[in-house]
Design a protein that fits this description.
With about 170 residues, this protein is mainly alpha-helical. It has one domain: Up-down Bundle (Four Helix Bundle (Hemerythrin (Met), subunit A)). The protein has 5 helices and 2 strands, in the order H-H-H-H-E-E-H. The protein has a two-stranded antiparallel sheet with strand order 1-2. A hairpin with a 3-residue loop joins strand 1 and strand 2. The protein is globular, with a radius of gyration of 17 Å.
Length: about 170
């Protein structure tokens, strides 16, 4: 378990990077260990699924770190740049595949951000000037939000497992 209280002091950058890594790990934990069927089960009216949350998070990492911060053209990012369709997972993609995609996107984000100052500014086509500090804060908020969604979906999935096990017993 990646404990958010293990590091409580340090430079601003250390704290931002640590908390971002924490919420990355939390999001992965919401899907790890689910069956392929459970990970794809829609338990809410939207297209949101546990595996879809992780897939979308990989897109968000690519969008903000590769494209916006790193200046990589969308066509050259290391995965699909499909906006809201990023919640959709192909039939040929497994939970492990999607986790690996998200981890690769996080690794590349760390590499891109490593030599950039927190105050460095990049242009976003809608938001205008954004700093690396702002991108870190946005991604912490985004991934924490989706981890919360994942926690609820996981809780619903585990309740369904218990009900089904009781029926079989």
């Amino acid at each position: 378990m990646h404990d958010p209280t293990r590091i409580t002091s340090g430079s601003e950058r250390q704290l931002l990077e640590y908390l971002l890594d924490h919420v990355r790990a939390e999001l992965i934990d919401t899907v790890r260990g689910l069956s392929e069927t459970e990970a794809r089960r829609r338990l809410v009216p939207s297209m949101t699924t546990p595996i879809g949350l992780v897939k979308h998070a990989a897109f968000a990492e690519r969008k903000w770190f590769q494209h916006i911060l790193g200046g990589v053209p969308e066509a050259e990012c290391d995965g699909a740049m499909v906006g809201e369709d990023s919640f959709l997972v192909g039939d040929d993609e497994t939970v492990d595949d999607v986790i690996a995609e998200f981890e690769r996107a996080g690794d590349r984000a760390r590499t891109i951000a490593a030599d950039i100052e927190l105050d460095a500014v990049r242009e976003h086509p809608v938001f205008g000037a954004v700093s690396l500090r702002w991108i870190y804060l946005l991604m912490i908020q985004e991934l924490a939000r989706h981890s919360g969604h994942g926690d609820i979906l996981r809780e619903q999935t585990e309740a369904t497992r218990r009900i089904e096990a009781t029926r079989r017993a």
